[in-house]
Amino acid sequence: DCNVSVGSIFSVYRRTSSTSEAATVKDILRPGTDIVVAGYCMYGAATELVVTFGQALPGVQRFALDPAFGEFVFVSDMAMDPGGGKKIFSCNEGNSLSWDQPILQFVEHCKDTGYAARYVGSMVSDVHRTLLYGGIYLYPADKKSTKGKLRVLYEGFPMAMITEQAGGVASTGLLLGKVGRILEVMPENIHDRCPIIMGGERDVNKVLDLYKSLDQSKL
């Protein structure tokens, strides 16, 4: 109703079950490292398709729908600025009372060092901007949602693969007592959730360093 830009996220696996029978849920309950294609289509002022073929064709490609021809036209390769790009942080600060200390510290660091706050609330829009301009997108676990809110299979995995192929980093932050790579999460159910921290190395690594410092302080 509010007409904000939204999108469709997808990924493709090679099936492991017999092709002579119907596919099973086991074909997709696998880590994100098994994905062969990932992408999203964003519907806004323009309709854009962003896709990666992973190791088969490294990198991320961006296409825009040309309504005159009814076809998607190649726009550019998408590669994140190795230096981190613009100083932008994107998160729902309405959840801040439930965040853990490293996330709180990082967001305060952003505010103290002149970062701009940008948050649409549509994952496709927020990640798309992060890929183009730099910065970081966060939807961490918190006291209310200890496994995060976003779904592993159809939000976390595809966007993590795209982010990594564009030169960024995609981490779970703290998930079940460990900090790890989103693509290495092992889903047990179709609708499993995981925390999301993704973007340029400069900012994601800052968050990961804060988690490491927290671990050291407990020793």
Account of the protein in words:
The chain has four helices and 13 strands. The chain has two domains: 6-78, 2-Layer Sandwich (Fructose-1,6-Bisphosphatase, Chain A, domain 1), CATH 3.30.540.10; 88-217, 3-Layer(aba) Sandwich (D-Maltodextrin-Binding Protein, domain 2), CATH 3.40.190. It has a six-stranded mixed sheet, with helices on both faces. The protein has a five-stranded antiparallel sheet with strand order 1-2-3-4-5, with helices on one face. Strands 9-12 form a two-stranded antiparallel ribbon. Helix 1 crosses helix 4. By secondary structure, it is α+β, with helices and mostly antiparallel strands. 25% of the residues lie in helices and 29% in strands. It is globular and about 50 Å long.
